[in-house]
Structure formats: structure tokens, C-alpha cells
Amino acid sequence: MNVLIRIKRYDPERDNKPYWDEFRVEADPIDRLLDALNTIKWTMDGTLTFRRSCAHGVCGSDAMRINGRNRLACKVLMRDVGNKVTIEPMLGYAVIKDLVVDMDRFFDKYRSIKPFLITHDNEPGTERLQSPAERARYDEGTKCILCGACTGSCPSIWGNPDWVGPASIVNAHRFIFDSRDQGAAERLQLLSHKDGVWRCRTIFNCADACPRGIPVTDLIEQVKRAVVYGGPEDA
């Protein structure tokens, strides 16, 4: 199939404003969009800049706005975008160059919710055991690959860059509802302020954008209930 690929490009060191660049690419219907981008970079324009690494939907590095929706280029097949596709950098992030966005603030917010196991008791003599039900309670949050697609799809972030964002709340959920963790109160306090969990307007863009199928909005609602009830037990 012959595909017209329109890419929104911008080099802050050279360009006054973003502009659209077009490329014609021959692709197999079951090629990934990442394959087409590689073809452009390797054979047409080596200055095209985008992130990619594992190419298997695990690292999350090639998140971008594809036909108006945040997706991973390595998971989108050419047959699913048709003969014309528009690619832009994700919204809500400063553009470093072309499709590469600055993720520093995203990871600062992620670190702010203390995404690690917190315990205050003495180290146990054996491993910290959990039942299958206890493990299942926070399983969805463990699937996050920190691609930023959910956060970049959220109008609340577009309007208020200081908001902690859905990805950070999902990762907070993963520990708040972990039966082994003792830092829930600390995280819930962090998320109870004006730029915390209440900034979510339940728009569901985040759940649609997640390449791992995480029910992001539902997890955020669970954290909201935990804030209201003072802990995860009844949330």
C-alpha cells in the first residue's frame, strides 16, 4: 500500500514555528507505523527525529499522536491507519524536536508520589507474602510502562501543567493498594491537594490512550475514594 504520511515537525533551534512535512511510503498492510517512520528516517530524511527502542510495546518510548489519538507507533499497523496518516508530538509536553517531547516534568511528577515500597516495620525473616486476591487488588497499575500517552491525552494537563497527571496517580494506586506497603497515608496526603487527584475531571481520554489497556480513570476514582475514606481499606 502507498501511504501519505504527514508529520508535524519543529526544531526550536532552527524553526520559528511548527510545520507539516509529507512523505510517500510503500508499506505492507501488516507493517507497523514505526517501520514506516524508520523507512523515512533511513532512506528519505535522516533529520527526522523520534524516540524508539524495544519496538514491541514494552518500553513506551515511541508514544506519539497518531490521527489525533495518542498511540505507540510500534503497535499501530499500517492497515489500521489507511492510505493517509497524520503524526504529531503528544500534546501537553514541550517539543524538543519533531516527535520528541520533553518528559522531565512527567518523571518529576512520577517520582513525587514515591513509586516504591515503603515499610516501617523491621525486615521480616521471610519474604513478604500476599494472597492472590491481595495481589490482584493492584495488578492493573503494575502494567504501566510510563509512556506518557495517558497524561498527554488529558485536557486537565493541557490546561494546568502543574497537575500531577493520570500516570502518576496510577503508579500511586499500585502502592496505595499493596497490602505490604505502609506509605498509603503519605501518598494520599500528597494527592489530596489542589493539583492532586481532584483535578481529574473523569474525561476517560487517558483510558482510551493507554496502550496496555489499563482502566486509568477507574484507578483514579479508587484513589479518590481512598482519600475520602482516609485509606485504601474501604475504597
From TrEMBL:
It catalyses: a quinone + succinate = fumarate + a quinol. CDD domains: fer2. Pathway: Carbohydrate metabolism; tricarboxylic acid cycle. Its cofactor is [3Fe-4S] cluster; [2Fe-2S] cluster; [4Fe-4S] cluster. Its EC number is 1.3.5.1. Residues 134-166 form the 4Fe-4S ferredoxin-type domain. The keyword Oxidoreductase applies. Pfam families: Fer2_3, Fer4_10. Binds 1 [3Fe-4S] cluster. Keywords: 2Fe-2S, 3Fe-4S, 4Fe-4S, Iron, Iron-sulfur, Metal-binding, Oxidoreductase, Tricarboxylic acid cycle. GO terms for molecular function: 2 iron, 2 sulfur cluster binding; 3 iron, 4 sulfur cluster binding; 4 iron, 4 sulfur cluster binding; electron transfer activity; metal ion binding; succinate dehydrogenase (quinone) activity. It comes from the Bacteria. It is an enzyme of class 1 (oxidoreductase). The keyword Ubl conjugation does not apply. Residues 1-91 form the 2Fe-2S ferredoxin-type domain. GO terms for biological process: respiratory electron transport chain; tricarboxylic acid cycle. Belongs to the succinate dehydrogenase/fumarate reductase iron-sulfur protein family. This is Succinate dehydrogenase iron-sulfur subunit.
